[in-house]
């Protein structure tokens, strides 16, 4: 990437469309706008303009907006062209921008420039990527909390407390004989650092919930052959995903479908029937089934016989009796958690209610300021460990304790991108679509 280049990209998605938005950013934005539309509009005011190419050829008419840096998304001079969303129109404008010496943006390059110009930090940028990718209400709410800067404010507040603690310790170490330096500040410093360690620990308790919100709850349907697993998958998905037959062992592989339930993303997996077999293909399917069961957040164990529930050893299991329309006398209320018939629909609403009851309880969290990525969790654990090490190093001297607090501060700084994150940037921005 050349950070001095003026870049452009289609930012509005697939074509054709009603409106196509082309974004431009860089030092030559005003020059390019003048050549395309003849006149630069007042900042932040949309102006209907004719977009012309070489030889004054009319390409299209559309709205032109100009954002003067640093008061723009990237911190540079920016422009947006809102045109008719035809492929030929967009291609003509992009070709003209390239002819004028601009460069097509790489994935995430607009957001990367916003980071480099201190318009957004890494947590806000990751939240922006999650907001674009959000498919459920909970994913949207989590992403908004991150992209709006609320989580960053929490981490920055913790960083300021660490800096203050280090400053007090350094003052005590270096200027203890000065009249304007208070006496031992250590008791108040260590009380606040102990509290900070507890706050980070409480914050980390929400990491598992945030992971489920962002990545989805893994729910596996398991049971013996012909217990009704594939039929249940199709019924919950409300479309035919899996082949259903009376032949035992029809499902040989793990089939998956994404659902939205109570605002959460549910990744529902159908698996091969669990039984002893000599068939090599079916045996491989059973191995894969047990592997996905071992990683599940929730297992729906099916059986059409109350004496034949599979022993899975899973922590979160819902025992579901199936085919009760054909065998109602086999079952009593204590034999299973839920009794269903996919054919008649009996018990299906009850099953959905039970699945919803196993979703994370968000009442324990006052907001969605939760650590949602592995790197956030790793840095927070490092910060908490360093704070605990500082508290435990009272016999080693204030200089050692201050160094542990510096390590904690650096760990928090890496979350927002304030400290030593160059190796992370390519990975983070590669998640973005071109034009963002």
From TrEMBL:
Residue numbers binding GTP: 226-231, 245-251, 270-273
Keyword Cell membrane: no
Annotated residues for binding of Mg(2+): 230, 251
Binding site for (6S)-5-formyl-5,6,7,8-tetrahydrofolate: 23, 80, 119, 436
The EC number(s) this enzyme carries: 3.6.-.-
Cofactor detail note: Binds 1 potassium ion per subunit.
Entries under SUPFAM superfamilies matching the protein: P-loop containing nucleoside triphosphate hydrolases, TrmE connector domain
InterPro entries per the UniProt record, alphabetical: G_TrmE, GTP-bd, GTP-bd_TrmE_N, GTPase_MnmE, MnmE_dom2, MnmE_helical, P-loop_NTPase, Small_GTP-bd
Gene3D superfamilies in alphabetical order: P-loop containing nucleotide triphosphate hydrolases, Probable tRNA modification gtpase trme, domain 1, tRNA modification GTPase MnmE domain 2
Cofactor: K(+)
Occurrences of domain TrmE-type G (ranges): 216-360
Residues bound to K(+): 226, 245, 247, 250
Keywords: Cytoplasm, GTP-binding, Hydrolase, Magnesium, Metal-binding, Nucleotide-binding, Potassium, tRNA processing
Pfam families for the chain: MMR_HSR1, MnmE_helical, TrmE_N
MF terms in GO: hydrolase activity
Localisation per UniProt entry: Cytoplasm
Physiological role: Exhibits a very high intrinsic GTPase hydrolysis rate. Involved in the addition of a carboxymethylaminomethyl (cmnm) group at the wobble position (U34) of certain tRNAs, forming tRNA-cmnm(5)s(2)U34.
NCBIfam families: PRK05291.1-3, small_GTP
Assembly and binders: Homodimer. Heterotetramer of two MnmE and two MnmG subunits.
Family to which this protein belongs: Belongs to the TRAFAC class TrmE-Era-EngA-EngB-Septin-like GTPase superfamily. TrmE GTPase family.
Protein name in the entry: tRNA modification GTPase MnmE
Source organism per UniProt: Pararhizobium capsulatum DSM 1112
């Amino acid at each position: 990437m050349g950070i001095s280049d003026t870049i452009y990209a289609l930012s509005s998605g697939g074509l054709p469309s009603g409106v196509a938005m082309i974004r431009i950013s860089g030092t030559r934005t005003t020059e390019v706008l003048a050549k395309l539309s003849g006149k630069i509009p007042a900042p932040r005011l949309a102006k209907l303009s004719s977009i012309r190419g070489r030889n004054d050829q009319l390409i299209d008419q559309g709205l032109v907006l100009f954002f003067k840096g640093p008061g723009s998304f990237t911190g540079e001079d920016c422009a947006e062209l809102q045109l008719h969303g035809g492929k030929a129109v967009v291609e003509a404008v992009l070709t003209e921008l390239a002819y004028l010496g601009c460069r097509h943006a790489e994935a995430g390059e607009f957001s990367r420039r916003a980071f480099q110009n201190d318009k957004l930090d890494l947590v806000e940028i990751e939240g922006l990527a999650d907001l674009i990718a959000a498919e459920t209400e909970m994913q949207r709410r989590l992403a908004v909390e991150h992209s709006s800067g609320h989580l960053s404010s929490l981490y920055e507040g913790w960083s300021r407390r660490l800096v203050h603690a280090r400053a007090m310790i350094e003052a005590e170490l270096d200027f203890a004989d000065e009249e304007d330096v208070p006496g031992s500040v250590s008791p108040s410093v260590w009380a606040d650092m102990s509290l900070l360690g507890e706050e980070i620990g409480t914050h980390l308790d929400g990491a598992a919930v945030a992971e489920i919100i962002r990545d989805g709850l893994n729910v596996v349907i398991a049971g013996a052959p012909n217990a009704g697993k594939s039929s249940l998958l199709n019924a919950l998905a409300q479309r035919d995903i899996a082949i259903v037959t009376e032949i035992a062992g029809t499902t040989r592989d793990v089939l998956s479908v994404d659902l939205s339930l109570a605002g959460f993303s549910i990744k529902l997996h159908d698996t091969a029937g669990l039984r002893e077999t000599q068939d090599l293909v079916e045996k491989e399917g059973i191995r894969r089934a047990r592997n996905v069961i071992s990683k599940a957040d929730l297992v729906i164990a099916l059986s059409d016989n109350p004496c034949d529930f599979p022993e899975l050893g899973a922590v979160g299991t819902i025992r579901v009796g199936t085919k009760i329309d054909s065998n109602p006398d086999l079952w009593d209320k204590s034999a299973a958690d839920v009794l269903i018939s996919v054919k008649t629909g009996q018990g299906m609403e009850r099953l959905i209610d039970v699945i919803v009851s196993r979703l994370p309880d968000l009442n324990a969290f006052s907001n969605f300021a939760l650590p949602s990525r592995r790197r956030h969790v790793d840095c927070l654990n490092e910060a908490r460990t360093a704070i605990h090490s500082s508290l435990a190093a009272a016999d080693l001297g204030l200089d050692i304790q201050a160094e542990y607090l510096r390590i904690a501060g650096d760990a928090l700084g890496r979350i927002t991108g304030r400290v030593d994150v160059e190796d992370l940037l390519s990975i983070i921005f590669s998640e973005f679509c071109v034009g963002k």
